[in-house]
Specification:
It catalyses: (6S)-5,6,7,8-tetrahydrofolyl-(gamma-L-Glu)(n) + L-glutamate + ATP = (6S)-5,6,7,8-tetrahydrofolyl-(gamma-L-Glu)(n+1) + ADP + phosphate + H(+). InterPro entries: Folylpolyglutamate_synth, Mur-like_cat_sf, Mur_ligase_C_dom_sf. This protein is an alpha/beta fold and 492 residues long. About 1% of the residues have low confidence.
Length: 492
């Protein structure tokens, strides 16, 4: 039967969870799902049914066996900071090696969240599948799981939710397209993540860990590390970025428990990998180094091949990851928009320093546009970290705004007509923190994102120009890039 792209997006949106469950997972439900409800992470019981529940069964309903999933040759990536960038570097390196040697001819990549439109989550050989392709694969999944004989009315309550459905559509597409390798990013966890039903990845990667999503994974860093290390699997190579003290021991314990290839986690402590030096900013150099090690291990395990320095160079050149350390110039360089979807304490300080280090001497105006609406992180601590990192930046104006976290962008949409669906959060706290650290800067509040961006733009008129840092949420950055006319293209 099928349907249009707009129909697919509308149906996908119906599977969003209105709110996170607050009740502890019932013991019988946990037992049926193969989970252990008596296990406590950070003293907390499991709440609601984790994303991993049901995934294997739904894949089999789609006609895909565990062997079909294993044949995708998966590199599974979890972490707190740099997950998406590391995935994009892995993708670029695999494509460069494939161009040089003939394998892999194509690479699938699933990432989350998307920046502008849901199909960005599903990339094939560096490009998001188009609207027609997304609709095709979406309806093949939807009609089998929701409209087919196996999905009776009584079962529909146990059908996939939004993120589960996104993963199912992506893996279904990769199998149908016959990709040679897949880069698979977790959502925000690991152990119970919807992606973690994958039984036999070739390589698993844990990027730097930080205090994020503490209500689901915390409260302690070791609790978070335990969850993220849940992707480690028997027989798979385990690779990790360097971690803060005490966390590598958690990863190593889980690696031993799972029986990873070689019996231990390979920790990438430096950026000495050939071809990595020169990648900017420095944090991306670290992500790139981890990706090089991961791809090298992957090729050795799969085919006994070596990743050449030339393929590393070409991979670095081919890297693309919009919304992270992205500078968009307008008006012949008069406007520079520094966009980074940093949203936790680890990442947002790096974003601030990246902005400061990139500024040039002169009379250009300097503006910060910030917003973060979240109940899963300490937004005051995040903003304080950003304000600290911007000391000495000369920011003259900070604009607090909002965004629609469920916005679906389309060609007919204008951000100027966007109606805010949320209220500006904790503005008194944000203003107090900013004035404490930047007493001479002006503070403004704009409910509509388009108005905030227009205000930032006007600051540079008719003077020497303006540098605007937009950060605090990926949703905020997405709206900004759309307003700037940056479409999907080959992006996320």
């Amino acid at each position: 039967m099928g349907g249009s792209y707009e129909d697919a997006i509308a149906l996908l949106d119906t599977r969003r969870r209105v709110r996170r469950p607050s009740g502890a997972l019932a013991k019988d439900a946990a037992r049926d799902a193969g989970l252990k409800p008596e296990f406590r992470v950070g003293g907390e019981a499991l709440r609601g049914k984790p994303g991993i529940v049901g995934m294997s069964g739904w894949m089999e309903e789609l006609g895909h066996s565990p062997a079909d999933v294993a044949a995708l040759n998966i590199i599974h990536v979890a972490g707190t900071k740099g997950k998406g960038s590391t995935c994009a570097y892995i993708e670029a390196l695999l494509l460069a090696h494939g161009a040089a040697t003939g394998w892999p001819r194509s690479v699938g990549m699933y990432t989350s969240p998307h920046l502008l439109v849901p199909q960005e989550r599903v990339r094939i050989s560096g490009t998001a599948i188009d609207e027609r392709g997304f609709a095709k694969y979406f309806f093949e999944v939807w009609e089998r799981l929701f409209d087919g004989d196996t999905a009776t009315e009584s079962q529909k309550g146990e059908r996939p939710r939004y993120l589960q459905l996104c993963v199912l559509v992506a893996l279904h597409a990769f199998i149908k397209e016959g990709v040679g390798a897949v880069v698979l990013e977790t959502h925000h966890g690991g152990e119970y993540d919807a992606t973690n039903f994958v039984e036999k990845p070739v390589v698993t990667v844990v990027t730097p860990l930080g205090r994020d999503h503490v209500k689901q994974l915390g409260p302690g860093m070791k609790d978070i590390a335990w969850h993220k290390a849940g992707i480690l699997k028997s027989g798979a190579v385990a690779i990790s970025s360097a971690q803060e003290e005490g966390l590598e021991e958690v990863l190593r314990a889980r690696a031993e428990e799972r029986g990873v290839f070689g019996g231990d986690v390979k920790v990438v402590t430096g950026t000495e990998e050939p071809g990595v030096q020169g990648v900017k900013p420095d944090v991306q150099m670290g992500n790139c180094a981890v990706a090089v090690v991961a791809v090298r291990a992957f090729l050795e395990r799969m085919r006994g091949e070596v990743l050449s320095e030339e393929s590393v160079r070409r991979g670095v050149e081919g890297f693309k990851w919009p919304g992270r350390f992205q500078v968009v110039e307008r008006g012949g360089g008069r406007e520079r928009w520094w966009c980074d979807g940093a949203h936790n304490e680890m990442s947002i300080g790096v974003a601030g320093r990246w902005f400061v280090d990139g500024l040039e001497e002169g009379d250009r105006a300097r503006v910060l546009v910030f917003s973060q609406i979240s109940d899963s992180r300490d937004t005051e601590a995040v903003f304080r970290c950003l304000a600290e990192s911007l000391k000495g930046s000369g920011v003259q104006l900070v604009i607090f705004t909002t965004y629609d976290p469920d916005q679906t962008f389309s060609a007919s949409m204008s951000l100027d007509q966007q109606v805010a669906t949320t209220t500006l959060p904790s503005l008194d706290v944000y203003e107090r923190v900013w004035k404490e650290l930047h007493p001479n800067a002006e503070v403004r509040f704009e409910l509509q994102l388009a108005e905030a961006l227009n205000l930032a733009k006007r600051i540079g008129e008719p003077g020497a120009g303006v540098d605007v840092l937009v950060t605090g949420s990926l949703h905020l950055v997405a709206g900004t890039l759309w307003w700037l006319g940056e479409g999907v293209g080959g992006a996320r």
